[in-house]
Fold these 2 entries.
Entry 1:
Amino acid sequence: MTGPVTGPVTGKGTLALVGPGRAGSTVALALAAQGYQVVGVAGRAVDAASTLAASACLDAEPRFVAQVGTGAMVVVIGTPDAAIEATAEAIAPSLEPDALVFHLAGSRGLEVFAELRARRPDVRIGALHPLQSLPSTSAGLERLPGSWAAIAGDAEIDRIAELLEVRAFRVADGDRELYHAAAVVASNHLVALLGQVERLAAAAGVPFDAFAPLARASVENAFDLGPRAALTGPVARGDLATVEGHLAAMDAGERDAYRALAREAARLAERRDHALDRLLDDLRTLQPPDGEENPSS
Ligand SMILES: NC(=O)c1ccc[n+]([C@@H]2O[C@H](COP(=O)([O-])OP(=O)(O)OC[C@H]3O[C@@H](n4cnc5c(N)ncnc54)[C@H](OP(=O)(O)O)[C@@H]3O)[C@@H](O)[C@H]2O)c1
């Protein structure tokens, strides 16, 4: 396939982006602000809206994936996790010797580059996962400095992290799944839990916003004091009557999550409390109000 490549630009400080979405465009823009010249952008299609938008704001040429590496000494892969491996293979022929190719995924390590490594042993590989939510490039550019990032691979990735002003830590491929699980809990599960707060609050006729200062202070406390020291509430105090009251009052569909987290709170507080265990188990079979089906029966 031929593409609109206008000729190689060589030398350090040149960059290409494949996968011009939220994370890839944020990282490319941040590196451009540090003096990188962005020479090419490739997306799902050379004329896709995201490819054209990123090329315009990065002042770079839209390219076909197979040609994106030409003239670039750094290639950022910002495709979805599942497409990284195939993308790395697709860009292999266009890569400059000694170029650094890195992806941004949290769930994948350097194993995704196995085929690329075999085909192009003369290029360097890495990974840099910003441990931050990047919902747009403007929010991303604001949030990136000061965030942490999991890095792996070639030593130049440390320099890239420095330029992005992120605090880097290395994660080995074997620890990658656990690391990413922690990130998912810290982000997605925390949000899912706030979904339960919203539902319980609504059932009590209380605005969700009223819980924002409490939730923010609890997160701050957990990081300032450590989760164990920050834990307060009925489970930490061993106040089983209150836990029982909560479970009895709430919709049956809310109980599983409440019980699971009550157990986690007991574990964190190191309360080996058989009465609590029994209570949480007994309430599994709590009779629902008339007409409502008990999901655990
Ligand atoms: N966003 C975050 O908060 C965040 C934070 C840290 C790390 N990351 C990581 O960053 C990576 C990208 O995530 P994202 O949130 O930026 O996703 P995204 O906004 O959906 O961007 C993905 C981009 O890749 C393009 N694309 C998809 N398949 C492709 C292919 N086969 N070849 C070339 N381009 C392709 C998409 O094109 P279209 O525009 O046409 O769909 C889109 O521009 C993931 O590995 C993710 O884990 C994301």
Entry 2:
Amino acid sequence: MLAQYDIEFITEKGRDSMVSLKERILLAIYDEFETWATQEKIICKKGCRVCCTQNVTMAAVEGDLIHRHIRENGKMEWFAKKMQQKGVTRRPEMTTNGFAAACLQGDDVESGAYGNESGCPFLENDCCAVYEVRPFSCRCFVSEKKCIPGISAVISESYLAASTAVMQIIEHLGQGEYWGNMLDVLLALSDLPENRQYIGLLPASSADQGRAQVVKALPLPGFLFLEEDVEILGPLLQRIFAHKIEEKNIEDILNNR
Ligand code: SF4
Ligand code: SF4
């Protein structure tokens, strides 16, 4: 469905318009997934926060969305303070598409287990202070049973396959750009021209520290779901790829057609 695409998203000239196109694609993907997920038996409620740890990964385009929200709401000082909170941050060894590529070529890889992470700095009064722009890793983390610290959430295999497929599409959307732990990606983006207001609010080496921890997002090598998941996942992927933005569907935009 997807071929490698080549759009100059990161050039200074025209960056704002291209970033905003990517953000619109991202928001459309979020919306389509949310609509699809209404069929799941999810018990998550406002104020439930066991899952809100520093173990959140995302692509740079998701960081752009958060930074835009921070700028537009004048929350730069709040953000700078939050980013300096100490905690244990776990970092994945490979991206979702890197993991998929390794699996598809038959390599022996493990997805990695996480535990004992510190709470997310964006939690305030047990709620997410950036809820409307939270990354997909947070959006898709749900459970059919109330979570207990240290015990995994309960979700169906098909939900897991669907959320992994969508993560892969989002990584593909941001290929070549930063990918990694949410806090590292946010720091890595903090000295871009549009984020200049952070200069003086964050320690001088913050952006470099973030960049030292992130990796590059990779193109989609193929999906990981099984044949029995196609019936459930097919409609979700079709809806995402057929979603139109400015008269073009997302599949054509991603394929640069
Ligand atoms: S995934 Fe678990 S901890 Fe997170 S909101 Fe849902 S039930 Fe609560
Ligand atoms: S960004 Fe929001 S939803 Fe995600 S882990 Fe942090 S507080 Fe929770």
